[in-house]
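Hi Y.,

Following your request, here is the sequence exactly as I used it, all 349 residues.
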Amino acid sequence: MRVGVLLSGGVDSAVALYSLLEAGHDVIAYHMKTMPDEFYLAKQIKHKVCCSPADTFDAQLIAKHFSVPIKVIHVEDVFRRTVVNYYLEEYKNGRTPNPCYLCNRLIKFGFVMDLILNEGADKIASGHYARIIDGKLYRALDKEKDQSYFLASIERHRLAKIIFPNGDKTKSQVREIAAKANIHVHSKQESQDLCFIPDGDQESFFRENGIEFNEGPIYDVHGKELGRHKGLIRYTIGQRRLGVSLGSRTYVVRIDAQRNAIIVGKEEDVYRNKFSVSHLNFLVDLPEEFSAFVKVRKNTLEVPCFVRHNGSEAEIETKEPLFAVTPGQAAVFYDGELVLGSGIIEEVL
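Below is the corresponding structure, written out as tokens. Let me know if you'd prefer a different format.
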């Protein structure tokens, strides 16, 4: 089988490539560029960050090590039009977006996947930690590394054409395979920075893109003005250290973009058990009402919930209140190991 592998330049994708070669597949590596190299060089970025020049160098070394052809795919324009512009617009509207969730749907397993398949590949593979069994998405065996939350945005019909070789391996097993295969990449600390904000300086990024920091009022949950904030884009639901106090720990409860205002409250005010979800992406057939488990952030535990939907929008009620349910973030639904689908949190009710 001919497989196009998304080779990022890291150990995980290198082991995925190696595993496919060991299984006897005809493999071609593809390395994705979301931002031009000049962008990273201008910011003097030398550490590990997705799609940077350092990543590209490592990807080419890995491909050479395995004598596999590699193609660099430039997606800068489509990435800017979709993911970056989406990120900016969501923040301007007082929401907290999840760009990696969108990138997986539109870029990696959208635009790039179509390109690879159109070039003759039978399937596409990557180093992500998740499993696809009979065209359905499941959690990875390694729950600490599981990336199904970010992959739940992929369109259902595409799953049968995707392979995740690392999904049934632990991270330690992946490292052992890398050592066995003499896979060596430059030792860099794994970065959590976004590829388009590689230095982590969000404020500079917003200014460079013409977004101003307009001050506005901070209200408590009863409407009393407590002070002034320094721009909505500096805040997210559940955030502390606000410069105002209610006599106890104070948190952002809601962001009101129409009034350019922030509503704050005590910790108990941040917990909610009802919210709406839009842009539904179901990966299995589901009735209009169903029970499941829902996760509203990558690093939070999923909780039991009840879902009512019309195919494009849903109302969710959880059995226990969740902390900082945030418009713009992804809600992902599970039934045990199986990923049922996902959507974007629209409004906290």
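The chain is about 25% helix and 30% strand.

Thanks again,
Q.
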